[in-house]
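Encode chain A's predicted structure.
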Amino acid sequence: MFGISETGLKVCLCLMEDGESTAADIADRLGIDRSTVGRQLNHLTDIGVLDKRQRLLKEGGYVHVYSPVPVEEVRRRLTVGLLAWTDEALDIVEHVNREKLDALARADGDAGDEQASIYWDG
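Encoded structure for chain A:
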């Protein structure tokens, strides 16, 4: 549901052990391509498992630093996400059921017409 891959879990566990790190440091530690780590970090940040901030570099510029969100906050965020997903799924099921009932009603109305037939599996 949240789309966390095996690589994403490795990245997350690495950060839980280190406390905070950059994409380059994680890529080096795990032996994974930096762009793959970057995609995973962005996804984990998007779903609320990690926080991202900028660290200014002495030589100029900045680097993104990632850190794990406290477990209770992750639990809260994932619960909110799960409830939203469940609500959306129930809306879809309700819509499909309405369409099915409408189609059955139309088929019943056309019972005298041999061309009108509907078949629902399940």
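The first strand starts at residue 50 and ends at 56.
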